[in-house]
Design a protein that fits this description.
five-stranded parallel beta sheet, globular
């Protein structure tokens, strides 16, 4: 099937932004660069809202690429802030929501030396939030621990075919038509009360 939501995760210098640009050029997807939640905001509620907003956005554009998302919070939180504020259980719920929407989750993971070379060039110009190499190596190791995350596609641009990955995102035309029908029915459900049901469910969960 065609994946109208693509989530790109991975270390700094792993080629996420370049891949996002390729997807945008070929498929016309909107690219959104995601960062950590605003200070003081609950990560789970923040990312859950982003999932919902992204689903709504696909009604008005060919598709959406999220350049970094919630999994990055689990990697950078412990290294930069000393804690994983999202947690395994909340990540599982967000991941299931993305999977239900048919999102393709891609972990960009080229070899360490490739990422280090790109990171060093950007760090010298003050373009990276991680300024020390030991911290960068710690985040790379943390990403490696999520390499086999359930339902995720691992991609190494130095070895794997970019064309094959883009074809995977496109999917067969028949499946695209079927998926478009599902999205249209979901839009009708949203206008007839599903949004209110979701809001009520979130309130119940907070209690």
């Amino acid at each position: 099937m065609k994946h109208r939501i693509v989530v790109l995760e991975g270390p700094d210098g792993s080629g996420k932004s370049r891949l996002a640009a390729d997807i945008q050029k070929r498929l016309g997807y909107e690219v959104r660069h995601e960062g950590p939640p605003p200070a003081g905001e609950d990560p789970y509620r923040y990312y859950l809202r982003q999932v919902f907003d992204t689903a709504l956005l696909t009604f008005t554009c060919p598709g959406v690429v999220l350049d970094r998302f919630a999994l990055g919070d689990r990697v950078y939180g412990p290294v930069l802030r000393g804690e994983d504020r999202l947690g395994a259980e909340n990540w599982r719920k967000i991941r299931e929501g993305l999977d239900w929407l048919g999102a393709l989750r891609v972990l960009c993971m080229p070899p360490l030396h490739v990422c280090l070379t790109a990171w060093r060039a950007r760090a010298r110009n003050g373009q990276e939030m991680i300024s020390h190499e030991d911290r960068f190596r710690a985040t790379y190791d943390a990403w490696n621990r999520f390499y086999s995350d359930e339902g995720q596609v691992a991609y190494d641009w130095t070895r794997d075919s970019r064309e094959a990955l883009l074809s995977l995102i496109e999917g067969p035309e028949a499946e695209e038509a079927r998926l478009r029908g599902l999205y249209n029915r979901l839009a009708m459900d949203l206008t007839s009360g599903l949004a209110e049901d979701l809001a009520f469910g979130l309130e119940q969960e907070k209690e």
